Amino acid sequence: MKYVFVTGGVLSSVGKGIVTSSIGKILQSAGSSVSSVKMDPYVNVDAGTMNPYQHGEVFVTQDGGETDLDLGHYERFLDIELSKHANITTGLVYKRVIEKERKGDYLGQTVQIIPHVVDEIKDLLLDYGRSLDIDVLTVEIGGTVGDIESLPFLEAIRQFRMEQGYDNTLFVHVPLVPELKSTGETKTKPAQHSVQELRRIGVQPDVIVARSARLLDEASRAKLALFTSVPKEAIFTSYDVSSIYQVPLILDEQGLGAYVERRLSLANRRRSLDPGLKRWREFVERVVEPDGEVTIALVGKYTALPDAYLSISEALVHAAAWIRLRVHIKWLRAETLEETASLAEAFRDIHGIMVLPGFGRRGTEGKVKAIHYARTSSTAFLGICFGMQLSVVEFARNVLGLKGANSTENDEECAHPVVDLLPEQGNVTSKGGTMRLGGYPVILSRPSKIFDLYGEDVINERHRHRYEVNPKYIRSLIDAGMNITGVSESGGRVEVIELPGHPYFIATQFHPEFKSRPLRPSPPYLGFVIAAARAAGVPTRPVLPGKGGVKETRWSQ
Ligand code: GLN
After folding, report:
1. Fewest C-beta atoms under 10 Å: which of 40, 42, 217, 556?
2. Could you tell me the fold of the domain covering 2-282?
3. Which atom of ligand 1 is nearest to the CA of 387?
4. Between 45 and 536, where is the model more confident?
C-alpha cells in the first residue's frame, strides 16, 4: 500500500483538504482504489464538542464518528464511506497513550513524545491502513508546518518513510504563494521558508502544490525548485477556480496524476469507474455553466461562517447540478429574524427556505418564524434535525393550538414539551460522543413524497441528536393533519414529517446531506431544489432525460 502525506505551509485554510481530495480523485480515476485519513493536531479527542465557529461543521460518519469537515470532502470527492478511525487527533493519541500507561503497558518506562506518542500515531495509521483493501491512503496533516502541536505528526511521517520505504510514501507540501497586488508579482519566499522548516525536521517534500491566485509561471516554478530541491516537474499550482470540484481537473491537466503514478509505480491497478474523469468533468460543467439559478434562504445560528454548514451547501450544489441549475444561497441569521417585522420582506425573491440543524435556545424563535412563513406562504421548505423539531413546535403552537409548545432543549418547563430528550439520554451528562450518532435505518411509508424521492421502503441515513418528537404528542399531530412519513426501526421515533397540501414541506430528523455526492444527489435535497425551481419558474433539465431526478438517481452512478 502507498501513503501520500499532505502538509500545509505559510497559512492555514489554503485548501489542503481540497488538494488532498483532488489527488485522491485523480489517482482513483486512473484505477487505484483510494481512501483518506485526516490527522488533526488539536487536543480535542474528536470534533464533536467544538463550536462550529472554531472549526466549521462537524462531519458525521456512518459509524457515528463526529469528525473534521475534511472527511466530508474526501467522501464527496471519492464517493466512499469513511469510518471514524479516519480522523486521528492529538487528543485521541494522548488518550490512548495515557490509557496504556495507566494499565502498565509501558513496563516501567518513562513515557515520552518520542518514541511513545509518535509510535502511537504510526500504529494508528498502519492499523487503519491495513484494515482497508486499497492501493493508496492519502493522509492530510492539519495545521501549518511550524506549529508546535503538529511536530509529533511530522516526526511520525518522517519515521514512517524510513520504515515503509521511499517507494511507498510521498510527501506533498501545499504552501500559499501570494501575489503582490501593487506589482502583480508572485512571491515564493514564504513557500521556500516553509519547506526549509519541513526539512529542518527531516521531511523533504517530493511534490509541491502551490496555492496561488494564478498558475505559477516557469520562472516562479524554477525558483521554487532551486530553493526547495523539488524538481520543477513536481511543482503544480492549485489556482483560484469558481468551484472546488474543478481542482482535480486543473491539477490533472498539469500532469500531477501521471507524476504521482510514476513516482509510486501505480499504473493500471484496477478498472477505473470514471476513466479520464469524464463524468466528473460533465458534473463540473453543470456546476460552472448552469442553465439558471434558484435562491434558497438558509436560516441558522452560525450563518456568518458558511463552513459551519458545509455538507448542506454542498448537497444543494449537487442537487442543483443534477437539474442544471445553480443555487444562490442567502444566509439568514436566526436571531436577526426574531426582530424582523416583515418576513415577506426578509424572504423576498426566495424560492425555498431551509431551517438548519442546531443546538441551544438562541435564535430558535427566529427559526420558528421562518417555518411559519414557509408553511403559510407555501414556500418550498426543508428542515433538518433541529429544523424538523422546530417544525413540530410551530405546528403544535399554530395548528394544534398548543400554547407554550416547545422543545425541552429550549425551555425545560414549557407547557407542552412536543420535543423532548431521547429516553436513553436521560442519564447522560458528558457531552463528547454521547448523542444518537451515525447511520440508522428509517422506514418510509407510502404514499408519501419522501418515498417517491427515495424509491425505497427502508433507507439508512446519518443522525446527530439528543432530542426527538415526544411520542405522547404524535397522535394529536397526525389528527391535526401532519403526516409522519418516516419512523425509526422500532416505529417509535419520528424521522420524517410532511405537510399535505403544501408544494414541498419536508423535514427530517436525520441529516441527508452527509450522504450527498456530486453524481448522486441526496433525494430530499433534490426534491427541494426541484420544488424551488418550480416556484421560481425556472425550467429544469435533469441529467437523465425524462426523469425528474427522483427515484432513478440511485442508479445514475
Ligand atoms: N439540538 C437538537 C438535538 O439535540 C438537534 C440537533 C441537530 O440539529 N443536529 O436533538
Report:
1. 217
2. Rossmann fold (3.40.50)
3. 8
4. 536
